[in-house]
Fold this protein.
Amino acid sequence: MSNRELIAESAYKKIYREGNKVVKVFAEGFPKSEVLNEALNTARVEETGLNVGKILEVSVVDGAWAITKEYIEGTPLDALMKENPDKAEQYMDRMADLHIQINSYSCPLLNRMKEKMTRQIQELDMIDEATRYELLTRLDGMPKHYKLCHGDFEPSNIIVQGDDMYVIDWVHATQGNASADVARTYLLLSLNNPFLADLYMDKFCEKTNTEKRYVQQWLPIVAAAQLTKKRPQEKDLLMKWVDVCEYQ
């Protein structure tokens, strides 16, 4: 592990920079299937030609699984937003354009969003059976699309490099409905800044001629799926959105 600089860490992984590469080392016991799935998802998205950090290697480092990718020079969008709060509208505008670009691609070998969400809601143990039934019924009735969806599209996963923007962390990528992907971004933004969340949804709906109500119909479903990640800081907000009666 010489010449490696620790740049981020969580309970499940440590991320090191090594020159023009970044090495994500997973915690001991982290499921091999999830490591390989992340690498495979990223490789499949690479093939679209989008600006993503390319996978260079999957290996074992000191007994732990690791993924080595290209290091993307630049500044995370969330850092730029903190430095330049007066440019919030400009940043949301660029972010919406980037999201629309991503959704314009197809990636037919990725998992299907609807199937993944169905599994997540079925496994969710913090909602009652009636709510689960309503959520699954609503999900089944939503239009089936097969657009490339990031699954965790938020400012911390966007690297700005001059006029270019790179998107990282494709572990949750699926093929599915773009409005569901936007609903997830809305919820993630809402955790820290409801104003930005509303601004973002407005930008996306205006640019794509999508009814805001249609995106909102995804919110309870997406909130339930997001709950399966069991992030304590998100639970209260997500539980509020799981109320399936709100947009009946």
Summary: Residues 223 and 238 are 5 Å apart (CA to CA). The first helix runs from residue 32 to 46. The first strand starts at residue 5 and ends at 9.
